[in-house]
Specification:
Blueprint (H helix, E strand, L loop, with lengths): L2 H4 L6 E6 L2 E10 L2 E9 L5 E3 L6 E7 L2 E6 L7
Antiparallel strand pairs: 1-2, 2-3, 3-4, 5-6
Amino acid sequence: MDPSEAYRIRFATDISIGGGWAYFTEKYIKDDEYHSVIKKVDRSGKVVQVTFGGNERYPKAYGEALFLSSIRRIKSR
């Protein structure tokens, strides 16, 4: 199984609960590079994408605030 096939299976990682939502990281492959976004799910099961940068991880919810890590890739010269 190549990485693209493996990433078709979706897992919720880095789960954090706060403000009535459960936040999680979803990882995927796009243009042969690994990416990740943060999504949230409410008690009814509705899933909403929260970030769109492609490299966010480790959501932590504190009350109504959401903290996360955004990874920036620097290309070597």
